[in-house]
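Async update (no meeting this week)

Hi team, since we skipped the sync, here's where things stand on the single-chain job. The sequence we agreed to prioritize is pasted below, unchanged from the tracker. I ran it this morning and attached the output directly underneath so nobody has to dig for it. Comments welcome in thread, and please keep replies under the output.
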Amino acid sequence: MDPNQAAKNQAHTRRTEIECWLTDMDGVLVHENQAIPGASELLKHWRDSEIPYLVLTNNSIFTARDLSARLSASGIEVPEDRIWTSALATAAFLKQQKPGGSAFVLGEAGILTALHDAGYVMTETDPDFVVVGETRHYSFDAITKAIRLIIGGARFISTNPDATGPSPEGPLPATGSINALITNATGKTPYVVGKPNPMMFRSALNKIGAHSHNTGMIGDRMDTDIVAGMEAGLHTVLVMTGIADQAEIERFPFRPDEILGSVADLL
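Output:
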């Protein structure tokens, strides 16, 4: 048998043993607020079959409730308790690190709400942590304050490493770019909780009571979804409806377990 075909058969066999799923959102389920064909049907299949799943995103601007509403407007029904953001993962991590702690936050409702719900106090006075999340309104004064607090001893945490984000007009500077600015000013690098840190996947697995050996990860990016899924021990599925193309795949020394055209191929 052709070795490539044998590998495909082996991957498909493993997929039949998957009992839980994690999936990225943008580029997998939706593209520019339009549902990707097959996404709604796959989610319905998981619900009807009572398959545990979570939709993951590095976006820390929105709460899970906000994202659920945005997906619904695109024709995709995902309850808020099935959405796991880098903000929720960061809040869970900080609650574990220091219960009842305090933070100075650069970010919006997603990270602020998650930290409040985790029992954190937001303060500008001697916080335990400085947390950098996604926002469309970075303030020079707030960045300056973050730099001074980190120099003063606050621990530097970030929700995600994405250097840019998309907009209709082109790329926007995102969390990773602000992380780099603060690192340059302080000499301190942040601990980044979101993808590709496998910790985000482990916290997602904990949320749905899943185990890595029988959980799959669907993503559209080699440098976040696939590498983190691989390092977390998950069955990895790359779909070609988002960032990745064949040239992008060839850039990396590792491969996903499966490469599919879209989530429709999982039905």
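Quick observations from my side:
The chain has a mean pLDDT of 93.
Residues 3-15 form the longest helix (13 residues).
Reply here if anything looks off.
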